Amino acid sequence: MKSTSLSLIAGTVALAAVTGFAALTAPGDGGTTEAKAATRLPVERSSLLCPAPGLSDLAETTYTSFTPAGGSGGEVGTAELRQSTSTTADDATDKGGNKDKKDKAKADPGKPVVSLKEPGKPATADESGADTPALVGTATGRLAPGWTTQQTTTVEAGGARGLLGVSCTGPDTNFWFPAASTAKSREDYVHLTNPDDTAAVADIELYGPDGTLKSDVGEGITVPARSSVPVLISTLTSEVAEDVTVHVTTRTGRVGAVVRAADEEAGSDWLAASADPTGTLVLPGIPADATSVRLVAFAPGDDDADLTVKLLGKTGAISPAGHEDLHVKSRMTAGVDLKDITRGEAGSLLLTPVQGEKDTPVVAALRVVRGKGDAQEVAYIPATGPVGAQATAADNRAKGSTLSLTAPGATATVKVTASAGSGGGEQTVKTYTVKGGTTLAVTPPVPSGLKGGYALTVQTQSGGPVHAARMLALPQDGIQMFTVQTLPDDDGTVEVPAVEQDLSVLDD
Prior knowledge:
By secondary structure, the protein is mainly beta. Helices cover 4% and strands 48% of the residues. It is built from two helices and 39 strands. The relative contact order is 0.17.
């Protein structure tokens, strides 16, 4: 038997457990493997990227890192987030658009900021000031499946005022951000963070109500190794538009991308990427007391999209008067003001193809405002996928959290686990039933004897798909500061085919 062949097969199976590699072929004279019934295995390595939270000397940031218990056996492993090397878009390229020579060298790992020691108990760290850099992190072993980190920043005054929250993202090559803007009242930045030891090159495309916004400087943006680059969207084009869809792709390498949106009247928050383009979208977690809700959608393909708009509330679905349908032209951003659509009852938005129309892929996001006048505060809710097997919101406090659970189809049951506290306390578990076509908004369970912060993990038990979002509200000086994070499946497991090997063909 050829030992080299067996070594290669073993290595490939190990790779499948990490990446979800779906088909295997053994080298040799006709040696093949046959894929049997697939199984799901815990991932062995996860990566997360947190954007630089600064831009204000008044910024106070808390990082909460967490991995749910019971994800896998074996070694505990490590889960650590370190400082990246912050840079600017101008530093990333020279006047000819070429990489700075410094960017070609490998970057040294930065200072550790937050380290997780065990599954089931969150770890926290605090940073302050305008110069706090982005973070780059990796988790291995039992800390990898479902690893989640929340970045929560409070800015009490100034143009960046607000409670800004974001779930740190995994690296990718393609991101869609509806609900950005180049309006004069806005100051929106795309933050690009590179986790790898070689430079990445990214392109940023902008789409307004009339199509592509002309730009000569959105292409070939170099993001140096283990570094972060903030790009002010309004500097990429001379065209002004209230509703802009931002498309980030990479030519080489991969990045984490998120938009920091600041409004001179309503404050600021992070806008996370929309779920990948699809025909049916769910945007969960609109607060009961929202005073303004604006829907922004974009169809990236060659076809227009005609969508039915429904609000899924406590008792069922309603169509917003005057906005029952939304027409989205191909490669043009559509925006519609839904005003105070929830009218005192928390809800979620469901977008589906108009009956008889084809399933045209769309991305979408909501701009949500609470309060009025000088007391306004803004947050963003992108379209998101279902909870699936498991999803987590890492940063929760003793007070201020609201969990929204939406079942757009069949009735479903979910289990919600409040973890042990970062400083003490025991986990608590509660089960909820969400009726089909409704949104259930609840004050989530709190760990007994809680000290510090804690994590909420949602797991689907039975029934149809459930979409979830967590609102964290921390009022200050009469302003209802809040932020909303969606809870898509954490991809803590990957599907791996069972393999049956006929070893007889590998004999010497």
